């Protein structure tokens, strides 16, 4: 599927159901051995105490949805033991194609490139951040239409896609740092999304 001109600026994506709060949580540190793991399914190193603290920080939730990635499912299970967790494959991390599994130190240097161009640059055989937004933003909108406080346990790319939706800028979303086991909150208002916090860590 070809990416739209700017999925983050889609007016349908900018009109959430009022009363919705998306609690976006990046998975716990991945056991990636310092290699790029977008679609590579690796486990996570989950600290039970840290997970409990982040769940307390997030507060009550009405529904929990996770990426099917093992690292996300393990994180969700640690955050809310015994709770029902839905899965949505649209929340998967960006597919880095030929770069999957490469050591971070050996990734290609893209040279001087602007954020807009970077958002539309895809690795060989992979997808761009714009393509990730094309599949992820509709998933978030589906959740928003149901209302309530929805926890989304996914990836850094997924969280940035949500920020692109909220701010209307894919390029701007790429500037945000999203740490493992961090909380980003966006809320619905009549005029659209409001970013309540980004990359918040439990004390």
Short key terms for the protein model shown above:
alpha/beta, 17% strand, Rossmann fold, 203 residues, six-stranded mixed beta sheet
Topology readout:
Blueprint: E1 21-26, H1 48-58, E2 63-66, H2 70-79, E3 86-87, H3 115-119, H4 129-146, E4 149-154, H5 156-167, H6 170-173, E5 183-189, E6 192-200
Parallel strand pairs: 1-4, 2-3, 2-4
Antiparallel strand pairs: 1-5, 5-6
Helix pairs in contact: 4-5
Can you tell me about this structure?
The protein is α/β, with parallel strands linked by helices and 203 residues long. The chain has one domain: Phosphoglycerate mutase-like (Rossmann fold, 3-Layer(aba) Sandwich). The protein has helices at 48-58, 70-79, 115-119, 129-146, 156-167, 170-173; strands at residues 21-26, 63-66, 86-87, 149-154, 183-189, 192-200. It has a six-stranded mixed sheet, with helices on both faces. Strand 2 (63-66), helix 2 (70-79) and strand 3 form a beta-alpha-beta unit.
How would you concisely characterize the structure shown here?
The chain is of the alpha/beta class and 203 residues long. The chain has helices at 48-58, 70-79, 115-119, 129-146, 156-167, 170-173; strands at 21-26, 63-66, 86-87, 149-154, 183-189, 192-200.
